[in-house]
Structures
1.
Amino acid sequence: MVYVTRRTTFSASHRLYNPLLSDADNERIFDKCNNPNGHGHNYVLEVTVCGVPDPLTGYVLDLKRLRDIIEEHIIEKVDHRHLNEDVDFLRGIIPTAENLAWAFWQILEQKIPSGRLYSIRVYESENNFVEYRGEPIDVPRYLVSTTTTLHDDDEILQR
Ligand code: NI
């Protein structure tokens, strides 16, 4: 098995906030990342596909093709956006690097033309990154605006 990786970057803003928690708890847990109007990161995304090299081409998959897939399905949707507000597939998800990696996996897994998706790494800063390898996890969606506090009659949907 050979592992091939495409590395790319995007810039986006987000706010870490859970509408189920009080403002005080949100601030305690998420600290600066709870800033009401968001804040930005220069993210690095690494997508790794594994497989056996094709005997005719020597490729697991053409990395140019992987580049184009990531560009079309992820980067164009998230680059220079507010992750809480502007990205349909992240709607209601707390946009931690963990949850971004999971969400990107859900999209990319079906798009890989040869080999199989092995890992997604999301770097939020030079020293902090997360890696997701596709084990099933439950990522809730909180369908409440990030800028309002939850009230009793707000609807909360979980996947
Ligand atoms: Ni942040």
Note: The mean pLDDT is 92.
2.
Amino acid sequence: MNELIENRLYTTTGDLTEMPFDILVNAANSSLLGGMGVDGAIHKAGGPQILAECRAIRKSKFPAGLPAGEAVETTAGSMPADYVIHTVGPVWNGGNEKEKAILYSAYMNSLLLGKNLGGKSIGFPSISTGAYGFPKKLAAETACRAIFDFITKHDSGNALMKIFLVFFHTKDEQIFQQVFTGMSMSDVSGLRVNSEFFRLESEFSD
Ligand code: AR6
């Protein structure tokens, strides 16, 4: 486990369904009826109750499917977590179809919902970077923007939520950390960033 921002942001590598967080985020598709990747792993680990709740959500609120960028919650079925938040990332289509804005919304809406649900810890997979083909560096930058905005604008009180980014491969975690390190320091002003992940001011000038 790597702590990037003190008490707030962590990265790790492993299977999200085995992590002890209050809330697990699922990189779902609009049908909410399951799929491959992390979505398949969550439904498998949580059992049929999650699918039953997803079907009920489809029926009552989203008959045409959950739009990309939005987020809804179910219980975590037989997993120890309190909730699964299902969000839908964008399918990468070259970058001219608002993919970045949609990915930002997927993270932000999941974080806001997680906070509303009273979660003290929330674990994310790397949304859209598998089957949906979103470039990993750009996805990392977009996730960082949403997380920084959430932490500084929407979750700066006392009841703080710890955010865990769970990568399936060590290489993907490293890509994220490199991008995080290269982000402008003004984005995280006021937060205690682990010095290991702080790019030196001089590195920006050349
Ligand atoms: N724990 C953590 N990360 C995982 C796990 C896991 N158990 N399994 C895969 N990953 P993807 P997407 C990583 O394809 O790109 C599904 O079929 C994986 O290495 O799961 O948003 C849905 O139903 C990758 O980095 O999600 C949708 O149809 C990341 O999770 C579609 O895929 C996301 O890969 C969504 O595609």
Note: Residues 2-204 form a domain with the Leucine Aminopeptidase, subunit E; domain 1 fold (CATH 3.40.220.10).
3.
Amino acid sequence: MQIDIVTIFPDFFRGPLEHGIIRRACEAGIVTIAVDDLREFTSDRHRTVDDRPFGGGQGMVLKPQPVFECVEALELRPREERARAKQAVVLLSPQGHKFDQSVAAELAMVERLVLICGRYEGVDERVGMFLADREISIGDYVLSGGELAAAVIADAVIRLLPGAVGNEASTRQESFFAGRDAAPGRGPSSTCGSGGLLDYPHYTRPADFRGMRVPEVLVSGNHQDIRRWRRRSALAKTLRNRPDLLDGIELSEEDRRLLAENADPAAAE
Ligand code: SAM
């Protein structure tokens, strides 16, 4: 995969994408990340990328010309052919569709991904209408610029690329993963994979830290009990923190029993 990040602050990315899994994925050639400076596509002495809004109002607007020219210089396929060519141009915007794990999985299938970072009051609307394939928001809050959002998306996408995470199974056992285990009509198989739920709680040594003990079942060596406990804990945490996720997945018979046990621990006995 090649990722291009279009920004007026190329130095911003010196830190966030140069550590851990992302750095190793770059070194292994799994992904190439290029940061494209919008100011290279200006022609005036001050390298101006913004201008006043038509109709008046607060702040400045990122001009269309440098954004169009920068993306055109990347020589992608015409917009109508991009999906088939496994290319995607994304405009970061609080007005976009909400980013989540399924969007990350979708973007992980493309071969070329362009992330356009807005600034100021936003980007001239023609960029979203005629240049980008989609607008994506990372959440219902307003950031000062699209750079943090681009870093979030790049991170979430890259860790899904084959070979990026040492133990690939671990990306299938994380929160939100709704892969084969949660196929419609089948429901999650109640394995340790999240099946669209939040992840189960993790513990490591020591078993007793300042009097706080790990749950006995995890040191019991009984794998069936551990699997059930993890699934029950994932269901409980999802119900507590993100009940909306439960609406989107099909629960197995065992899941329903485990949920009932959460509501009434006596039912577990
Ligand atoms: N005036 C815009 C509005 O109210 O919707 C906010 C513009 S914001 C200050 C500047 C830039 O930050 C946006 O163009 C976008 O690229 C980026 N940005 C801000 N919040 C974002 C979010 N939640 N998700 C993705 N990008 C965001």
Note: The chain has two domains: 2-158, 174-268.
